[in-house]
Amino acid sequence: MKDLIEILDILKDKMVKVILGSFTLDFRNGDVDPMVKAMVNMLGVFGEMERDITSSRVKSGLENAKANGKKLGRPNTTIDNIPNIFLKYYPRYKSKKINKAELAKLCKMSRTTIYKYIRLLE
To answer: What are the tens digits of pLDDT across the range 88-112?
Structure first.
């Protein structure tokens, strides 16, 4: 709601006409019709309420999944699940035939991922 009110103030200051589908906000005469302003504020309240309901449902779902023993989040990376493409080119890196950037390009991975896999192997 706070952001919506700030946006309405900006529109009023710039004296613009905004058309949202069949809904028109005309600030060109310096102010907006009180009924239109009330309708926009009500739409903002409903939007905020919908966001809060969605957030509450997501939190409830996560808590329910945890209670049922579901493991949430990204799986941990171990030596066993390092991709074969990395293991194919890693010996070249170890023998100093290629550097980390080249290893990343050959494996089509980010350097951050390459650093993580090297750390696991060393």
So the answer is: 999 999 999 999 999 999 999 999 9
For 117, residues 6+ apart whose C-beta sits below 8 A from its C-beta are 77, 82, 86, 90
Same domain for 63 and 7: yes
> Can you give the pTM of this predicted structure?
0.53
Residue 73 lies in a domain: no
Task: Give the residue numbers spanning the domain of 86.
Answer: 79-121
Tokens 């350097």 sit on residue:
111
Q: Which residue has the tokens 């006409």?
A: 17
pLDDT tens readout for residues 20-36: 888 788 888 877 778 87
How many structural domains compose the chain? 2
